[in-house]
């Protein structure tokens, strides 16, 4: 499966206000989101599986993958397209043995060494985390900055997605540094218009590729 990581939406229902996750995702997709990650740290497992299935029923006919954060069991139960794992989550070798060869496995990299190891162990893409400072996650390393993106791009050949403090003001710069796309949470899910916010971000991603 060839994945377009250009504009990668990470969900967070606590930041959606009165809107449902599916409504925010639908609006964001209309604006140009090309990949969606279900990340709901505090959702009971049955609810998370149900939400994953609802998202898949909407996204799959559009050819947009759903990635599940952390939870290999949820991804398998819901028949999601893959999982995204952090440095303290299930090891990629174990996840691959459970999920099989056909599903996507993304790995968060907080350093060049993390990224090189992820590539060697068979990751499908790397989330460079965090590029900039962010309030969405508090348990993260120091920001890698644009220089960090460039260095990871120099060292690995996998698709790279920058996450952490990404906005319309800096998305193009992240792509120019070598990222294949940007991942966002609050910049879309908390926006007054997720569709318009996604469209603006997508425009800046494309601008970064053109320069």
Automatic annotation (TrEMBL):
Cofactor note: Binds 1 Mg(2+) ion per subunit.
UniProt key word Transcription regulation: no
Binding site for Mg(2+): 70, 89
InterPro entries for this protein: Aldolase_TIM (IPR013785), ThiamineP_synth_sf (IPR036206), ThiamineP_synth_TenI (IPR022998), TMP_synthase (IPR034291)
GO annotation (BP), single: thiamine diphosphate biosynthetic process
Keywords: Magnesium, Metal-binding, Thiamine biosynthesis, Transferase
Binding-site residues, 2-[(2R,5Z)-2-carboxy-4-methylthiazol-5(2H)-ylidene]ethyl phosphate: 134-136, 165, 185-186
Catalytic activity: 2-[(2R,5Z)-2-carboxy-4-methylthiazol-5(2H)-ylidene]ethyl phosphate + 4-amino-2-methyl-5-(diphosphooxymethyl)pyrimidine + 2 H(+) = thiamine phosphate + CO2 + diphosphate; 4-methyl-5-(2-phosphooxyethyl)-thiazole + 4-amino-2-methyl-5-(diphosphooxymethyl)pyrimidine + H(+) = thiamine phosphate + diphosphate; 2-(2-carboxy-4-methylthiazol-5-yl)ethyl phosphate + 4-amino-2-methyl-5-(diphosphooxymethyl)pyrimidine + 2 H(+) = thiamine phosphate + CO2 + diphosphate
Keyword match Transport: no
PROSITE patterns linked: PROKAR_LIPOPROTEIN (PS51257)
Enzyme Commission numbers on file: 2.5.1.3
Cofactor(s) this protein requires: Mg(2+)
Superkingdom, taxonomy of origin: Bacteria
SUPFAM superfamilies linked: Thiamin phosphate synthase
Domain Thiamine phosphate synthase/TenI: 7-188
Cellular compartments per GO CC: cytoplasm
Classification via Pfam families: TMP-TENI
Residues reported to bind 4-amino-2-methyl-5-(diphosphooxymethyl)pyrimidine: 37-41, 69, 108, 137
Family annotation (PANTHER family): THIAMINE-PHOSPHATE PYROPHOSPHORYLASE (PTHR20857), THIAMINE-PHOSPHATE SYNTHASE (PTHR20857:SF15)
Family affiliation: Belongs to the thiamine-phosphate synthase family.
Function: Condenses 4-methyl-5-(beta-hydroxyethyl)thiazole monophosphate (THZ-P) and 2-methyl-4-amino-5-hydroxymethyl pyrimidine pyrophosphate (HMP-PP) to form thiamine monophosphate (TMP).
Name listed for the protein in its UniProt record: Thiamine-phosphate synthase
Annotated organism of origin: Desulfopila aestuarii DSM 18488
């Amino acid at each position: 499966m060839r994945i377009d990581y250009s504009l990668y939406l990470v969900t967070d229902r606590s930041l959606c206000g009165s809107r449902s996750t599916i409504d925010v995702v639908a609006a964001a997709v209309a604006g140009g989101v090309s990949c969606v990650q279900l990340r709901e740290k505090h959702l009971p497992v049955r609810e998370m599986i149900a939400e994953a299935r609802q998202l898949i029923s909407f996204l799959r006919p559009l050819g947009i993958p759903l990635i599940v954060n952390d939870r290999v069991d949820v991804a398998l139960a819901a028949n999601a397209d893959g999982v995204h794992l952090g440095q303290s989550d299930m090891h990629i070798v174990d996840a691959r043995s459970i999920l099989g060869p056909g599903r996507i496995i993304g790995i968060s990299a907080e350093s060049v060494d993390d990224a090189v190891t992820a590539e060697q162990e068979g990751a499908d893409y790397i989330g460079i985390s965090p590029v900039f400072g962010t309030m969405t996650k508090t348990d993260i390393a120091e920001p890698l900055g644009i220089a960090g993106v460039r260095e990871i791009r120099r060292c690995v050949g996998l698709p790279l997605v920058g996450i952490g403090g990404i906005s319309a003001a800096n998305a193009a710069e992240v792509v120019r540094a070598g990222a294949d796309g940007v991942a966002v949470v609050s910049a879309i899910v908390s926006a007054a218009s997720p569709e318009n916010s996604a469209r603006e971000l997508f425009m800046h991603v494309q601008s970064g590729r053109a320069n």
